[in-house]
Design brief:
mainly alpha; single chain; 76 residues; 434 Repressor (Amino-terminal Domain); 5 helices
Length: 76
Amino acid sequence: MQKKELYKIIGKNIQRERARLGYTQETFAELMNVSWSYVSKIESGVLNLSLGKILEISDYLNVDISVLLEIQNNHK
């Protein structure tokens, strides 16, 4: 697996959990005190997030970090 694939998987996991809570990208960005475009870049897999940032996001989403780092064979 290449790094870019991993970024996209993590981004999709974040997007799924955000949607599960009923947050739009805009409301989630406000909660995190970041810009909407930052959230968009995270979810599209453009950004290389540190483990610390992923842990912070998991706190905002009220899920264990392992949920965001989950890699399944069906991700493409």
